[in-house]
TrEMBL record:
This is Abasic site processing protein. It comes from Streptomyces caledonius. The keyword rRNA-binding does not apply. It comes from the Bacteria. The keyword DNA-binding applies. Its EC number is 3.4.-.-. It is an enzyme of class 3 (hydrolase). Residues 1-32 are annotated as: Disordered. InterPro entries: SRAP, SRAP-like. Keywords: Covalent protein-DNA linkage, DNA damage, DNA-binding, Hydrolase, Lyase, Protease. Belongs to the SOS response-associated peptidase family.
Amino acid sequence: MCGRYASTRSPEDLSGLFQTTPPDPGHGLDPSWNVAPTDAVWAVLERADRESGLLERRLRPLRWGLVPSWSKSASGGAKMINARVETVHEKPAYRRAFAKRRRLLPADGFYEWEAVPASDTAKAYKQPYFIRPEGGEVMAMAGLYEFWRDPAVADDDDPAAWWATCTIITTEATDAAGRVHPRMPLALAPADYEAWLDPAHQDPHELRALLAAPAGGRLDVRAVSTAVNSVRNNGPELLDEVPAPGR
C-alpha cells in the first residue's frame, strides 16, 4: 500500500512538468514531507472547461481518500486511499472513476514500513523507509478521482457542498521497494500521461495495458527516522538517512 508520501515541488514547477493550466491562485498547498490520508494533495487531471467546453489539463487540490459519488456519507474515505491495479476496473467503488475520472498525483517519493522484531535490548517496531526514483525525477502516481455531494450543505453553489477526492493505484513492488514492502504506488511514464488522463479514452483493456508495469527507472531506498510515523511532524529532516537495522 501507500499510506504516506512526500510532495514538495511548487505548483509552478508542477504546471511546467505536466503542462497544465496555471492553478487557481486560491488553491495553494504548502510543501509536505509527510502527506497523510485525508490531506489536500496536488493532482493532475483533464476536464472540459464549463464555458468553452474545451478539454483542459489542470493542476488542482483533491482530498486523499476516495468517496464514491453514490456514498451516503464521507466517513469511509480515509480507508480508500489505495486501489489495487488487479481489481480497480471492476470494484464498485472504483469502476466508474476508472472509466472517466483518472488523474496523476505528483510525488517526490513514498514511505513504506518494515517490521523489526524485538531484541534483548529493544522492543519490536516498524522501521520507515523513503523510496524515490534514483534520478530524483517526479513520480506521477496513477489514480482516480470522484466528486461527492455533501447532503448537509443546502446550496449547490457553496464550495463546501462538493468534495473532490482521490485514490492511488498500487501494484506489486519492484526493485528496491520490493525488499521493504510487497506493494507500491504505480507510477506512469510521461509517454502515457495523455492516454491515461483523457476522459474520452474509456476502453478498459487499453487503460489496463497502461498499468501493466510501473514506469521505468530504478528506485533509491533509505531508512529514515521514525519521526515520520507521526503526522504532526513535517519537514525536510524526515528524509535524512539513518542506519538501517540489520543491514
